[in-house]
Amino acid sequence: MSPMSSAPKQTTVGVTSKADPRDQMGRPLRDLRISLLDQCNFRCPYCMPVTEFHADYQFLTRQQRLSHDEIVRLASIAVELGVTKLRLTGGEPLLDKKVAELVSRLARIEGVDDLALTTNAMLLAPVAQKLADAGLHRVTISLDTLDSGIFRAMSGGRGDLATVMQGMEAAEWAGLSPLKINTVVQRGVNDHTVLDLLQHFRRSGHIVRLIEYMDVGNRNNWRSEEVVSSRESLQQIEARWPVRPVDPSYHGEVARRYEYVDGAGEIGFISSVTDPFCGSCSRARLSAEGMLYTCLFASVGTSLRDPLRNGADDEELAAILSRIWLHRNDRYSELRGPGEVLRPVRNKVEMYRVGG
Ligand code: SF4
After folding, report:
1. Whose CB among 134, 257, 293, 309 lies 3.0–4.6 Å from 298's, allowing a Cys bridge?
2. Which residues pair with residue 246 across a beta bridge?
3. What DSSP line would sit under 274-307, residue for residue?
4. How do the domains of the chain map onto residue ranges?
């Protein structure tokens, strides 16, 4: 088992009071998702279709991306404003070869209760122990099917299921469990393989969360007919294994929790389309180039990188972040009817830039 990071916790100087801003709906800022880079080793058609993200595609340069120093500084300021949960995402965060070093620095920020990372697990096996030793609390794995052919297709021909499973095993050995497994269910693509995936993880201690297919970004030609509602999935599951609801583990938890009556473990449903949860959404997203977005479906963000690089001090950056949050009134999923994409939201931020 891995020892937690023993270096002293750090706090941010200059930010005089723990402002704890509330947005227009009274929601606090508790959860910051940090995208380390806009690149990924997969080409999932609903996120980064290979036709567009081809070999010559111009991704952000290192200079354009926030440095680790800048990420730690902005994260520390966000914690002073109420954030207790940090999640590292991408693109694929494990493409950042120094991610473990960043983890150890973020783990030392006073007030971070939950430090997690979302990955497709393709690069996880060799670094799982290092991440755990650095202070990472847990990982969430994006895994849409255990059918190797469909998996290959859904990863744009880049994913290898055996390697992903090895990554998950290594994470478990490193103590980064229970693993949460995010499965986007798309009708006519992988919905017929969901029960097999659930069967595989029953009694594993890991938690599969079935995610309703969403109109994220602007490239997936989302159609509501392709959405398999959580209610429909639940009916299919109950026809095979009785389940019962479980209370949320904390306010604002995204997934609705259920457990198998026969004790085989827990599953979850993330129902942004048919049962939106904007009312308790306390999440902000920081893109790799330092743009802050207050909703997964936002079309406008605010740069924190530019004022930071133009010499703003921590108090000024905190004021900017606080002001953004105070003006926030996002509730896209609530406004989007179950059958319709919200018109006229154009140019939504792409998921690969802010993490799911
Ligand atoms: S749609 Fe936006 S406001 Fe609603 S839960 Fe998702 S991220 Fe939060």
Report:
1. 293
2. 257
3. TS--GGG--EEEE-TTSEEESSTT-S--EESHHH
4. 21-354
Identify the bridge partners of residue 140 per DSSP, sorted by sequence position. Answer: 118, 180
Spacing, Cα 271 to ligand 1 middle (Å): 11
Q: Is 211 in the pocket of ligand 1 (CB under 6 A)?
A: no
Q: Which residues, listed in sequence order, are joined to residue 269 by a DSSP beta bridge?
A: 210, 256
Binned average pLDDT, 10 residues per bin, the chain of 356 residues: 44 54 96 97 90 92 98 98 97 97 98 97 98 98 97 95 97 95 97 98 97 91 93 98 94 92 98 94 97 96 98 98 97 76 70 89
CB under 8 A, 24+ apart: contacts of 55-60: 60/288, 60/289
Beta bridge partners of 186: 227
User: Where is 173: in which H helix or E strand?
Assistant: helix 161-173
pTM over the 0.90 mark: yes
Give CA–CA dist 47/221, Å, rounded.
10
| β pairing state of 243-246 and 256-260 | antiparallel
Separation of 161 CA from ligand 1 center, angstroms? 31
Number of helices (H), then strands (E), in the chain: 11, 12
CATH code reported for the domain at 21-354? 3.20.20.70
